[in-house]
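Input sequence (118 aa), recorded before submission:
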Amino acid sequence: MTAKTNRYPRDVAEVVTAGLCTSCGLCESIAGSDRIKMTLNVNGFMRPGVVSRVDDDVNRTIMRVIPGRGVAGPEASPDGYGNDRWGPIRELMRSWSAEPQVRHHGAAGSFQPGSAAP
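Predicted structure, token format:
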């Protein structure tokens, strides 16, 4: 088995910037809405915004419990075609809806047969 690679953001702003925020609201619950406030972003998703300084102890507590605190997984194989846990990558593709309303407001990470543009 290969070694794990870990990337842990240092604060809520880095979690949001890295695209790891799940909109759970735990950061606001822990810090208080006077320091972190959940608001709708331009894409219509709830995201935290830092309103005032979050002290180090509160930040450590937040970073221990939020789901978006980091991503860990096995490193890629030396040949770059997979890893020991998931196996080889045969094909990797991207797709999106041709319908702007669906593309810009739909959930990410799923695919429905027949929904991709030819």
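Checked by second reader. The helical segments are 12-17, 26-31, 56-65, 100-105.
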